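> call design_seq(struct)
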């Protein structure tokens, strides 16, 4: 009984992580980095900086707001 249960758990985990990931979760970072012809780390860096610059300042805590506006 125990081995059969572990086999079922193993098969479910394999299906969830190996098969579903390949079809439903594409590697966006890799694709965009290749499209823009930059390394993955450079792409992530650019995205983080761009998103940080586009944050509305009223959502930041007051102590962080002071360091940005100076």
């Amino acid at each position: 009984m125990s081995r059969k249960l572990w086999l079922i758990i193993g098969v479910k985990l394999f299906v969830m992580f190996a098969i579903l990931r390949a079809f439903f979760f594409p590697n966006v970072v890799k694709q965009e980095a290749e499209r823009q012809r930059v390394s993955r780390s450079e792409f992530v860096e650019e995205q983080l900086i761009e998103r940080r610059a586009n944050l509305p300042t009223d959502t930041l805590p007051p102590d962080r707001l002071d360091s940005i506006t100076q």
